[in-house]
Amino acid sequence: MFQNLSDRLSQSLSKITGKARLNHDNIQGTLREVRKALLEADVALPVVKAFVNQVRKRALGQEVSRALNPGQQFLKIVESELTSVMGEANETLNLAAKPPAVVLMAGLQGAGKTTSVAKLAKFLQEKEKKKVMVVSADIYRPAAIKQLETLATEVGAEFFPSSADQKPVDIANGAIAQAKKSFVDVVIVDTAGRLHIDDALMDEIKGLHAAITPVETLFVIDAMIGQDAVNTAKAFDEALPLTGVVLTKADGDARGGAALSVRHITGKPIKFLGVGEKVEALEPFYPERLASRILGMGDVMSLIEQAESKLDKDKADKLVQKVKKGKSFDLEDLRDQLQQMQNMGGMSSVLEKLPGMGNIAQMAEQANVGSQFKQMDAIINSMTPAERRNPDILNGSRKRRITVGSGTDIQDLNRLLKQHKQMAKMMKKMKGGGMAKMMRGMSGMLGGAGGGLPPMR
């Protein structure tokens, strides 16, 4: 979502980071570029003004003039102010209430409220070890009730049935009463959305809020609505005592303005980011990590957390032991590594979280590396266990069978075998502690003079 903004800011700041001395002119010139980049990213004008003024004030003060490396210090100020605009630190849900704690979800139609309810239920069950019940008070869209029931089954949350002939307040109160009997920790209430803000919606949701007094009232907003996010957020904030924001569709190609504007305008923290359509695609929002990523400085903490939750530790340990003992790296090992990479969102997702790797992440995306990984996985799955363990036995007829089974060509298979040999060589180097050599080998596979992964046909 922040790719364009990240590119523009990196270009603007690169002109100043190497400077031995900062003066009024080069600070003003850089801030002009930063301002332009933020406006193009659909950040609200009041937010841009406040941000630029604050950076200018700090940059022209003593903070930079005393620094050993003024250019680097200026970048640090921009990162710090960017973090401040988005909310300083991650703010978790406040569920410290007599069970069941009620969470009310509000927002416009199409923002992804119902999916976010299921994602949040899964998150609370897995990360907070809570027993969760979900209920839909959307009496205008029976399909929304059915959708929530399906999603609740998928994430393993309890579902309280409701129907279009009931009143939203009665539905919510019924769910809370049932939750008390079933010893449920958290009840998440999905509400009706509209295509635009109207008085009837606001009166209904105000009444619902007053009746159930939720501990958290979350405003679900689509990251792709840009500048309009500000007006919508303002209207909901005036009608309801919001406690936080869930920003959905952050994996899309929106310009990122909503994320940078909504906190400043409403004063309410962004608590979660929706980063995909799957039920596990919900992340706690860390302003400092996102600011670091926007400025091309990586996000190693998120990468470590992602690795801890999504990597198969047994498979990783098995491979480490194998490498240590000097055993050969076979195609089954390669397939495991490809699957682990896909679980973490693909190579470009991993690379963009590493400091200074933003350009390589872009190269990986442009080379369509994700599709190539899927193709390689299909080829390996079309082999017999014996062929995976010992690719040297592959003759012409075996290769034909494998390519027909995976819907690929002989060239694709030969390319995979060549890449496997390269990786096997790298693994041998790792045995001798040659990690630097291995990293050089990986950069050669990713791209560079005459090498790299060719584009998919």
UniProtKB/TrEMBL annotation:
<comment type="subunit">
    <text>Part of the signal recognition particle protein translocation system, which is composed of SRP and FtsY. SRP is a ribonucleoprotein composed of Ffh and a 4.5S RNA molecule.</text>
</comment>
<comment type="similarity">
    <text>Belongs to the GTP-binding SRP family. SRP54 subfamily.</text>
</comment>
<feature type="binding site">
    <location>
        <begin position="248"/>
        <end position="251"/>
    </location>
    <ligand>
        <name>GTP</name>
    </ligand>
</feature>
<dbReference type="InterPro" id="IPR000897">
    <property type="entry name" value="SRP54_GTPase_dom"/>
</dbReference>
<keyword id="KW-0687">Ribonucleoprotein</keyword>
<dbReference type="GO" id="GO:0006614">
    <property type="term" value="P:SRP-dependent cotranslational protein targeting to membrane"/>
</dbReference>
<keyword id="KW-0694">RNA-binding</keyword>
<feature type="binding site">
    <location>
        <begin position="190"/>
        <end position="194"/>
    </location>
    <ligand>
        <name>GTP</name>
    </ligand>
</feature>
<feature type="domain" description="SRP54-type proteins GTP-binding">
    <location>
        <begin position="269"/>
        <end position="282"/>
    </location>
</feature>
<dbReference type="InterPro" id="IPR036891">
    <property type="entry name" value="Signal_recog_part_SRP54_M_sf"/>
</dbReference>
<keyword id="KW-0733">Signal recognition particle</keyword>
<dbReference type="Pfam" id="PF02881">
    <property type="entry name" value="SRP54_N"/>
</dbReference>
<comment type="function">
    <text>Involved in targeting and insertion of nascent membrane proteins into the cytoplasmic membrane. Binds to the hydrophobic signal sequence of the ribosome-nascent chain (RNC) as it emerges from the ribosomes. The SRP-RNC complex is then targeted to the cytoplasmic membrane where it interacts with the SRP receptor FtsY. Interaction with FtsY leads to the transfer of the RNC complex to the Sec translocase for insertion into the membrane, the hydrolysis of GTP by both Ffh and FtsY, and the dissociation of the SRP-FtsY complex into the individual components.</text>
</comment>
<protein>
    <recommendedName>
        <fullName>Signal recognition particle protein</fullName>
        <ecNumber>3.6.5.4</ecNumber>
    </recommendedName>
</protein>
<dbReference type="InterPro" id="IPR027417">
    <property type="entry name" value="P-loop_NTPase"/>
</dbReference>
<dbReference type="InterPro" id="IPR042101">
    <property type="entry name" value="SRP54_N_sf"/>
</dbReference>
<keyword id="KW-0547">Nucleotide-binding</keyword>
<dbReference type="GO" id="GO:0003924">
    <property type="term" value="F:GTPase activity"/>
</dbReference>
<dbReference type="InterPro" id="IPR004125">
    <property type="entry name" value="Signal_recog_particle_SRP54_M"/>
</dbReference>
<dbReference type="InterPro" id="IPR003593">
    <property type="entry name" value="AAA+_ATPase"/>
</dbReference>
<dbReference type="GO" id="GO:0008312">
    <property type="term" value="F:7S RNA binding"/>
</dbReference>
<dbReference type="GO" id="GO:0005525">
    <property type="term" value="F:GTP binding"/>
</dbReference>
<dbReference type="Pfam" id="PF02978">
    <property type="entry name" value="SRP_SPB"/>
</dbReference>
<dbReference type="InterPro" id="IPR004780">
    <property type="entry name" value="SRP"/>
</dbReference>
<feature type="binding site">
    <location>
        <begin position="107"/>
        <end position="114"/>
    </location>
    <ligand>
        <name>GTP</name>
    </ligand>
</feature>
<keyword id="KW-0378">Hydrolase</keyword>
<dbReference type="InterPro" id="IPR013822">
    <property type="entry name" value="Signal_recog_particl_SRP54_hlx"/>
</dbReference>
<dbReference type="InterPro" id="IPR022941">
    <property type="entry name" value="SRP54"/>
</dbReference>
<dbReference type="Pfam" id="PF00448">
    <property type="entry name" value="SRP54"/>
</dbReference>
<dbReference type="GO" id="GO:0048500">
    <property type="term" value="C:signal recognition particle"/>
</dbReference>
<keyword id="KW-0342">GTP-binding</keyword>
<keyword id="KW-0963">Cytoplasm</keyword>
